[in-house]
Automatic annotation (TrEMBL):
SUPFAM superfamilies (UniProt xref): ATPase domain of HSP90 chaperone/DNA topoisomerase II/histidine kinase, HAMP domain-like, Homodimeric domain of signal transducing histidine kinase
Swiss-Prot/TrEMBL keywords: ATP-binding, Cell inner membrane, Cell membrane, Kinase, Membrane, Nucleotide-binding, Phosphoprotein, Transferase, Transmembrane, Transmembrane helix, Two-component regulatory system
Name of the molecule in the record: histidine kinase
Domain HAMP: start-end pairs: 200-253
Amino acid sequence: MNASVSHPPAPHASPGEQKIGLARRIFGGLSGRLYWRTFFLIVLLVSASLAVWFQSFRVLQLGPRVEQTSRQITSLIDLTRIALVHSAPEYRTALLDELVKREDIYIYPRVASDQWVPMAHTDFTRRLTKSVDARLHEKLDFAEAVNGRPGLWIGFRIDHDDYWLLLDRSRIDSSLGEAWIIWSVLATLLALIGAAIIASFVNRPLRDLSIATARVREGNFSHQLSETSGTQEIREVNRGFNRMARALQDIEQDRALMLAGISHDIRTPLARLRLEAELSVPDAQARHDIVADIEQADSIINKFMEYARSASPVRESVDLPDLLAKIVADYTKNPDTRIRMPRDAEARVMADPLELQRIVVNLIENARRYGRSPGTNRVELDIGFAKRSTEVCLSVRDHGPGVAPDHLPLLTRPFFRGDEARTAAKGTGLGLAIVDKTIARMDGRLEVSNAKGGGLLVRLWLPRDPADSLPPPQL
C-alpha cells in the first residue's frame, strides 16, 4: 500500500489567498520567536524615536530657515535692482552675464505671454513669501516653472519694467534633502545592527537553555550550562537548571536500578512457578493456562522495561525496506498473518536499527492483538513507503475494526487502550506509547488515524538519509 502523504492546498483557494496564507505563516513563525520579536520591537522603537526627533527638528528649524532664505532673496533682489538701475545701458548685458557666471543668477524680462506655474503652497513657502513681501514692502510672484523651465522664479519690478529672477532652488531652499536621506539610512542601519546585537544578547541564553532542555528530555544529562558568564539572573537560572538536571539524572539512575531489581526479583519466582506448573499440574489444559498467564506476566514486565528505557539511540543510515523485509519474513511464517509491502522499494533513513526494529515489531504485534480482520480472524497488514525532501514515511495499515475517532489522540498515552473492539486481547496499553516515545528520540514523529475502508493506519515519519537521492520526476 502506498500511503498518500502530500497535503495540497485547498481547492477553492485562489493564488492570491495562498500567497497571503504563506506570508501569514512565515510572519507568524518569525514573530513567535523571541529573537525576532525582540529585534522587531527594538527596531520599531528606534524608528519611532527617529521619526519623532526628525519631525521635531523640522518644526524647530522651520522659523530660522524661513528667515535665512528670505534674507538671501531680498538681498539678491536689492542688489540686482541697484546694479541694473545704476549701470550704464551699454554695460547691463555684460553685468547680467557676470551674474550668471559668478553667482548663477539669471535675470529675464517678463512679458505678458509668459506661462508660469505658481509655487506649491506649503507651510515653508507660505511663510517665505509672506516674509519676503514684508521685507520689500511689495507683492512678488513666486513660481516653480516659467515657460516649462523649472527653478525658483521670482517676479519683481524695476521702475516700470517687469523681470524674472531665476535661482537654483537647492541654493535657496536649504532642505538638506540628500543629507537627511543619508543620515536616515545610517541611523536605520545602526538601529538594525544594535537591535540584532541586543536581541542576540537576550536570545542566546534562552537558546542555550532550550538546547539543554531538549537534551535532558532525550535522557542526556551531561550538558551543563555556564554558571560564570552572563548577567546575575542568567547565572542563577543556569545554576538552578544544572542542579535540576543532576537531580533528574540521579532519579533516572535510581529508577533504572529499581526496575532492573524488580524485573530480576519477579522473573525468578515466575520461572519457578512455570517449572512447578509443568511438573506438578497433571491437567494439560490447566497447565497450559498457567504457563500462558506466566508468559503474559513476563511480557508485561518486558513492556514496562522497554517503556522505561531512556538511553539515547544511535543515529546511522538504515535501509528501511531491507529491515522491514527481514521482520516480515519471520511473521509470514504464521498462517494467520499476511503482510503486503512493495517490492524493490528504496528508502534510507537516519535511525537506530535496533530501536527501529523494536518499533516495527510493536506495530505488528499491536495489529496481531487488536487489528484482526472481522469474519476471518486473520491479520492483514499493508506496508508502504513515501519520500519527502527531508523525511521518509513508513505506513502500516491493518484491516481490523479501527478506533473511535475521539480515542485516536489517546492511543499514544501510556496504559490507555481503545474501545472494546480492539481490546479483546489482554495488554498493557504501552505498545503505541513505546513507539511514540522511541520515534521521538530519533527526531521522528508518529501519526495515527483510521484508514479509508476500515482499519487503523499508522504513519512513521523518519529523518531521511541525506545521501539518499530523490527519484527522477515521472513524465
